[in-house]
Amino acid sequence: MDTSQHNLSTLFQQLGLSASNEEIDKFLTVHSLKPDAQLSEADFWNESQAEFLRVAVEEDADWAEVVDELDARLRH
Protein backbone atom coordinates (compact mmCIF):
# COMPACT_ATOMS: atom_id res chain seq x y z
CA MET A 1 0.00 0.00 0.00
CA ASP A 2 1.28 3.45 -0.97
CA THR A 3 1.13 5.69 2.10
CA SER A 4 3.14 8.59 0.70
CA GLN A 5 1.65 12.05 0.64
CA HIS A 6 0.41 13.06 -2.79
CA ASN A 7 0.84 16.73 -3.61
CA LEU A 8 2.13 18.71 -6.58
CA SER A 9 5.72 18.25 -5.50
CA THR A 10 5.46 14.46 -5.25
CA LEU A 11 3.47 14.35 -8.51
CA PHE A 12 6.21 16.26 -10.30
CA GLN A 13 8.76 13.83 -8.84
CA GLN A 14 6.63 10.92 -10.05
CA LEU A 15 6.59 12.47 -13.51
CA GLY A 16 10.38 12.87 -13.47
CA LEU A 17 10.22 16.68 -13.34
CA SER A 18 11.92 19.19 -11.08
CA ALA A 19 9.76 19.40 -7.99
CA SER A 20 10.82 22.52 -6.12
CA ASN A 21 8.14 25.13 -5.59
CA GLU A 22 10.01 27.48 -7.94
CA GLU A 23 10.24 24.88 -10.70
CA ILE A 24 6.57 23.94 -10.34
CA ASP A 25 5.58 27.61 -10.56
CA LYS A 26 7.78 28.02 -13.64
CA PHE A 27 6.22 24.95 -15.28
CA LEU A 28 2.72 26.28 -14.58
CA THR A 29 3.67 29.66 -16.05
CA VAL A 30 5.18 28.20 -19.22
CA HIS A 31 2.52 25.54 -19.89
CA SER A 32 -1.24 25.79 -20.17
CA LEU A 33 -4.22 23.80 -21.40
CA LYS A 34 -7.04 24.91 -23.65
CA PRO A 35 -10.52 24.52 -22.12
CA ASP A 36 -11.40 21.47 -24.24
CA ALA A 37 -7.99 19.73 -23.98
CA GLN A 38 -7.36 16.54 -22.03
CA LEU A 39 -4.48 16.84 -19.57
CA SER A 40 -2.88 13.58 -20.66
CA GLU A 41 -2.96 14.63 -24.32
CA ALA A 42 -0.98 17.84 -23.85
CA ASP A 43 2.03 18.02 -26.14
CA PHE A 44 4.45 18.78 -23.29
CA TRP A 45 4.24 15.27 -21.77
CA ASN A 46 6.32 12.34 -22.91
CA GLU A 47 4.55 9.03 -23.51
CA SER A 48 5.07 7.59 -20.01
CA GLN A 49 4.03 10.84 -18.29
CA ALA A 50 0.87 11.02 -20.39
CA GLU A 51 0.04 7.38 -19.62
CA PHE A 52 0.54 7.91 -15.88
CA LEU A 53 -1.79 10.93 -15.88
CA ARG A 54 -4.40 9.16 -18.00
CA VAL A 55 -4.45 6.04 -15.81
CA ALA A 56 -4.52 8.05 -12.57
CA VAL A 57 -7.74 9.76 -13.68
CA GLU A 58 -9.38 6.76 -15.39
CA GLU A 59 -8.83 4.46 -12.42
CA ASP A 60 -9.52 7.16 -9.82
CA ALA A 61 -6.16 6.20 -8.34
CA ASP A 62 -4.55 7.69 -5.23
CA TRP A 63 -2.97 10.28 -7.53
CA ALA A 64 -6.28 11.39 -9.12
CA GLU A 65 -6.94 14.30 -6.77
CA VAL A 66 -3.53 15.92 -7.26
CA VAL A 67 -3.69 15.22 -11.01
CA ASP A 68 -7.01 17.09 -11.03
CA GLU A 69 -5.32 19.95 -9.17
CA LEU A 70 -2.58 20.07 -11.80
CA ASP A 71 -5.21 20.04 -14.54
CA ALA A 72 -7.06 22.98 -12.95
CA ARG A 73 -3.88 24.99 -12.40
CA LEU A 74 -2.84 24.52 -16.01
CA ARG A 75 -6.14 26.06 -17.12
CA HIS A 76 -5.67 29.36 -15.23
TrEMBL record:
It holds the Pfam family DUF2789. This is DUF2789 domain-containing protein.
